[in-house]
Amino acid sequence: MLHLDVEEKSWPLIRPFTISRGSRDAAKTIIVTLRDDRGNTGRGEAVPYARYDETIPAALAELRGARSARAAGMVSS
């Protein structure tokens, strides 16, 4: 059985990062961890882009929905 954990992480930047669309002082990412019952673990991260109408709350909701579907047996291994 697979276990899916998702979380938001924010790492402060040493100095602000600025481009034409704005400035930020932290890197905000989504961390995904998959574990199976045999002790295997996989990790990944993503940064949703506002330019494409992506947000961290929406991405987290989608990932948590996938976890719920998996727990309910609606998604195969």
Describe the structure.
The protein is α+β, with helices and mostly antiparallel strands and 77 residues long. The chain has a single domain (2-71), classed as Enolase-like, domain 1. Helices cover 21% and strands 51% of the residues. The protein has one helix spanning 56-71; strands at residues 2-19, 22-36, 41-46. The chain has a three-stranded antiparallel β-sheet with strand order 1-2-3. The longest helix has 16 residues, at 56-71. The protein starts with a strand and ends in a 6-residue tail after the last helix.
What are its keywords?
21% helix, Enolase-like, domain 1, three-stranded antiparallel sheet, 51% strand, 77 residues, single chain, alpha+beta, 3 strands
Topology, please?
Blueprint: E1 2-19, E2 22-36, E3 41-46, H1 56-71
Antiparallel strand pairs: 1-2, 2-3
Our measurement of the CA-to-CA distance between the termini, rounded to an integer number of angstroms, reads 8 Å
Residue fraction in strands: over 45%
CATH architecture: 2-Layer Sandwich
Basic shape = elongated
- How many domains is the backbone divided into? 1
Query: What is the CATH C level class, in words?
Result: Alpha Beta
Structural class: alpha+beta
